[in-house]
Amino acid sequence: MSYPAELKYTKEHEWIRDNGDGTATIGITEFAQGELGDIVYVDIDTVGETIDQDAIFGTIEAVKTVSDLFLPVEGEILEVNAALEDQPELVNSDPYGEGWLVKVKLANASQIADLLDSEAYQDIIA
Asked: Do the beta carbons of residue 92 and residue 38 sit within 8 Å?
């Protein structure tokens, strides 16, 4: 499994990429998609809402389970990955690329620094 070093991670298995322009892209990790199995639906209806850090911003549905999605940082949901509407399996096949979930406007970019780096995340899932 891969855990790109340029990303930050949460104990709830989300990743975040600082886009450097006051926004960030968020998805779930390769570990998380593997644990969930075949993803069949992504339900995120919080576009335009400001969500607190660690609050639920949507759900992801696999064949056998539904899992909540937790926002790693406080921010406004700007965009949901529209490709997931027709191809939710992108989260399985490319979790760090085409399978991203949302883009957010950061309320406090410094919160990113407090998240897990790649090594620390790998330690908690080992």
From this structure: yes
